[in-house]
Protein 1
Amino acid sequence: MSTAAPARPATPPSPQSKPSAGRRVGGFLLRSWRRLTAMRTAIILLFLLALAAVPGSLLPQRSLSQTNVNGYFADHPDLAPVLDDLYLFDVFSSPWFAAIYLLLFISLIGCVLPRAAEHFRSLRTPPPAAPRNLLRLPDSGRLESPLEPAAALDAIEEELRVRRFRVVRRDGVRGPEVSAEKGYLKETGNLLFHLSLLALLLGLAGGKMWGYEGSILVTEGQGFCNSFQQYDTYSQGPLVDSGDLSSMCVDLDQFRAEYEENLTASSFTADIRYGDPQGEERKTTIGVNEPLRIDGDRVYVTGHGFSPTFSVELPDGTAFTDVSAPFLPTDQRTLASEGALKLPDLGAGQDDQLALEGFFAPTGLMQGGVLTSVDPRPLAPQVAVIAYRGYLGLDSGLPQSVYSLDQSQIERGRLTEVGAANLSVGESLELPDGTRVTFSGYKEFAALQYSHDPGQLWVLAASIALLGGLLGLLLLRRERVFARAEPLPGRGGTVLTLASLTRGGGESGSRFTALSDELQGALTEAASRTAPSDPEVSPRD
């Protein structure tokens, strides 16, 4: 009698070992990369980029107008510092805008390039084999033909090739079959759209990196050369050096503004001369939407105003004629303007300098003892001036605006008011020391912007390609057609099972019905060509 061996205790399962720290970090990075390069993430980042650009359209930007930013600070002294801390006056150069831009750029690269490689591989791949049961597809049906199966498939193949399908003939398990496909341009348009968006971002980034622009007010009869030192405000890319600027000078000969009956401006044009300082000068006329384009540079007209002119006669008989300075418009509707004319070289010493601070009205009218303007056209120009004597502080090393006096000099008593008057053209203000200031007229000035953007053509080409890709994506459709031929049981002929799959919009049912009718017509025509002709009947003797 045998005894059973005692059962061995079950071995407990060994605990799974934890992955190493390197594998956990690698897995986290891989998951993060897949999420970043997903199309959903790219769409979200594109929406965030558009949303981030909204403050740049609603709030004044330092890169466009420091004056408007200063005006916003004056109007909103409590809110403006908070917005400034959030870079809302420098939106397009802020760290958070750059972060969104960079993430979108990386997401598009990681999303589009693998899809492009997969699409190029699919272009060389023949259409897939027909499914086993074609009648289960959403759009399917049967056609009958007296032709043999091979001849019927020949007619189907010919008709599909005429309709620009890629066609493959196979011998399937259930009989000979045809697989056809077209609409690859839809996916090509999709990829072209996203690649063009990527190229557009590259062009914009390149323009910011290697581009620059500067703004300056130029009075008629004056000019400037392309140099950062001459601009009132300028911005430059991080890869731009002052030696990279093109050597071109621009002189303003005449500015013309035309107005409608409701006093809205209809056109601004400026007659300018331009060219290399050592070369030949050329003349042209530019407008708001018609800039000067030369060698990749642009000169735009962005605004205009008036520069009142004065003649100053000193007690010793020394005269200075037609001295002027641009007065900046404070009311764009009537072009009422404020400004200052600084004359540091008229006095005998540093503390005997002269300055005029004033208000210019193109069409002046006294209302309640205050000069105002009622029309932007210079129909009755007048100026209200206040004359100051003292030290202007131009050589103190502290920056100050060329369009206004340093108020701290007035508050400290370094500049003292010595006279004030409202003057029409030809009228004079005589100061206590015998100096005579005469309002001699006005000139117009143009606000010009010199811009260099090497990415403009790149952006234009990318935008056109983006539009073409979008049209292909929206208008084209991806379509597959399958046909299988089987002999009719019990009698001659062929029964064709048809099916189609359509992606990309449109009524697939109506399209399949139309395709079936055309294929039936092709089969009928092929059958008529192969049918034996009727024998000729011999005449009776």
Protein 2
Amino acid sequence: MQPSFTRRRAGAALSATAAAALLAIAGTAGASSHREAPFITTSPKVDGTDFYMFRSYEPGRDGYVTLIANYLPLQDAYGGPNYFAMDPNALYEIHIDNNGDAQEDLSFQFRFSHTLAKSGSGQTVDVGGMTLSSPLILGGPVSQVRDPNLALAEQFTLTLVRGDRRTGSASAVTHAASGSATFDKPVDNIGTKSIPDYAAYAGKHVHTVNIPGCALPAKVFVGQRQDAFAVNLGTIFDLVNAQVGVITNRANIGALPNTIGDKNVTTLALEVHKDCLKSAGDDVIGGWTTASLRQARLLNPSPASGHQASEKPGGAWVQVSRLGMPLVNEVVIGLKDKDKFNASLPKADGQFAAYVTNPTLPALLSAVLNIPGSAPTNFPRTDLVTTFLTGIPGVNQPKNVVGSEMLRLNTAIAPVPFAQQNRLGIVGSIRDGGNDFAGFPNGRRPKDDIVDISLVAVMGGLCIANGNNNAFGFGAACNPAAVPLGATSLELHDAVDQAVVPLLPGFPYLNTPIPGAQ
């Protein structure tokens, strides 16, 4: 399928005003969704960091859609002795809306369990005639699923709920070969002595599964991965401590370091055939990921022996993390409403509409940095409404859309091989005259440089791309004359190159995690 808008080229040298605005916005953007709201900083195990949704570009898998939800940010590879197991008292979900009504039609629910070896003792050591529990989570090199040297087995179940996530019809996803409804998760990459070939070991945990109501087998993988998001985190949070000349020249893309390039995350990845996700009447699907905790938690002041025996949760599920489009809670939602957004549902996003139609960030930056006149003035910002809340007409807008924040993907647009992918997705194709319409904001691939694309969007670059031909369907309200930076807004970048982050050529696409020791 070819999108219905025309492509235009644009480019010019940045002015000093544009450079200042770029610096400020890049500094505010931060990581895609790492520690983005007050409450979630206290519960990193349920902190959703990035959500990806794209047509699989692995050869022979182009009929499938890959869904990737990352959690537990900024993992240091050496973070032992307990490392980064998922929370068995949490509910992790990936939701799909396939009719545009801002409500989930499919929810993939992940629940985790932890089991200690040797009937709850873990690995043991004989010392002076006594057999005692080892303090470590493994007792020797690991290479196999359920390796006998593992002291802690981490497993998960996967349930598909059709309809409302709490009251809909629930069915277990099962292993295609064994029929089991329980799946194994690999232990984190402790180091090369503990796990000599982690790539091979983790690969044994890619499970082929049967999804109820879907005639075609799917894949699932849950485990630690190298964080695929690229950002110069420390420098930009230090009031953008970077040289203007570096980040205003397209030749310097990649000049600044990716400061989270040595961090890991935990990935929940699914590969499902597109026909099992979309509805019969529309090729566009919307997706987002959430995590929920029980409403109550009792802490035991005298925990019994066992793994994670210090608390007992109860009550209804309470959503504490939400992520669809990247960077929304970081640079769109106001500080006082960040926890509220994380607890909200897409169908209620009207309460946050003013943050999109009248974004505070450009005006705030203009005042703080004393660069008056640099922010777009096309209020209400219909360009941002289309990008974040409805999808782009002729590209990824559902036939009957209710405005709501989620990642939207047109499953009829064919994937583009990795080498031919434009790091700026649709915006890059418009600017460069290319043919890559399978990237952000039409879904999101690991290669898509969403920081740079978001810089273009917030400073009005989509209005410039929209132009006189109304390419994005924004209408007359998206007046290029209201964008002070003009065509230069299409050139903004943060000097960190997302496109060079190491990735795998196929599912689960995100790279083997950094080892704790070489």
Protein 3
Amino acid sequence: MNLVTAATMREIDRATIQDFAVPGVILMEHAGRGVADAAQRMLAERPGRRVLVLCGTGNNGGDGFVAARILADRGFDVTLALLGRSDSLLGDAALHWRPLAAFPVAVHQAPEALPDGLLTPPGPDLIIDAILGAGLTRPTDGLIAQVVGAANALPCLRLAVDLPTGVDADRGRLMGTAFRAHRTVTFGLPKVGHFVHPAAGFCGQVSVVDIGIPRAVADAATGVRLLDDTSLRAGFAPRPADSCKNRFGHLLVLGGLLGKSGAGLLAATAAMRAGAGLVTLATDARAADAIEGRIPDLMIERPLGSEGGHLHVDRDRLRAVTAGKSGLVVGPGLSNAPGGVDLLRHVLASGLPAVLDADALNLLAQAPPGDRLTHADCVLTPHPGEAARLLGTGSDTVQADRPDALQRLVAQSGAVVVLKGAGTLIGAPDGRVAVACNGGPALATAGSGDVLAGLIGALVARAVPPFEAACAAVHLHGLAGDLGTRRFTEHGLTASDLVTLVPEVLADALRPAGAAVAR
């Protein structure tokens, strides 16, 4: 599924109305009815009868007019506050304003201030936000900001129409005071802001209502890809019957030095669970001796050393170890000690597809300005702190506008970038962007990123293109997090648990529809 921008959605509406002759007033009727249905379901779960509909003077307000009329007709106690004057309404919104007078809706026109008592305790049972939606063009302020802030402070249910007021549809930013919805009803196609944080945290549960947009119009829409099982299957094609291990790549994991050997082991074991034909961990002698034989499936090499606060490399041995490999994971447990940048430059000069994670990203940030070590077959996997170091900014800046940070990282590296976090984003140099909607806070645990690096590494090692490999692995990682949350709760999941769950997740996701489950 694609997530669209506000401009794309406006073009979809235009094509529906002009090219397919579906009247806009009908689309608005369907939209408002979808909002009313959602409100009624919410009030059935937490019983109440009093509804306050906050409306702007644009089309979002028009959807609110319809919802208010239908809810009143169904017997709810409905109050509507128009943040403006009715004589400023235009088009379909003006048409849907007129019938309100015939229904038991308490209507208030409030161009400067709401009437006393509408947003003071105890308040309504449900507030519907139909103020701005995707029509936001600047940060909320004045009356709108005051109303939204007061609505958020009440202990009631909150439902947003299309998008919560104060949420940027295109970039997932918060623009001024934003309405914090428990649920959001959107129309036709979901928007980028529904799934990109921080805005996604204000949308609550998102549902998409069919308002009559022709399938041909919706299917032609392009935008940000929302990851699903289709993304995963693209990276895990069925194996031929005559398969052998050499067909599925030989991945070299570079890292796991003594004291951080677990990070290298997590990446390596995750890669094996994701189907890499062979995996070798390249580390230092002391770490190798400590872990030798613990994982019989894993090969171990000793080209690295770390003494006196300096990273030493046996280049001849590293060159021999790299020979014959089809992919690299560099960074988990590597150290960012002096000498690391030269190591990174040397190993990336091989031109092999490479996943750069953890300490490899910190080493990239240490490289001289303008010294691009990465290439088009690299995948960078920064968390917000690592992204901030690469960009020379703060993590708060990264988190405030994650799509912008992603775009800058892709441009800076010339590579695929996985910006980890809630709503992980994946960007490619050709402009493609994807966003994850699974995993949740259970993935916020030590070693989770090492596991993800190994999953991506397994795929690039068997020649899955970097962007597709990143999308498949991020979705798989999130599914493992979801399953782990169900098994252990979001508090007790470890990175080792994620590795263990990968085969089960793959079995479920790749099973043909309707296929029986072996017991």
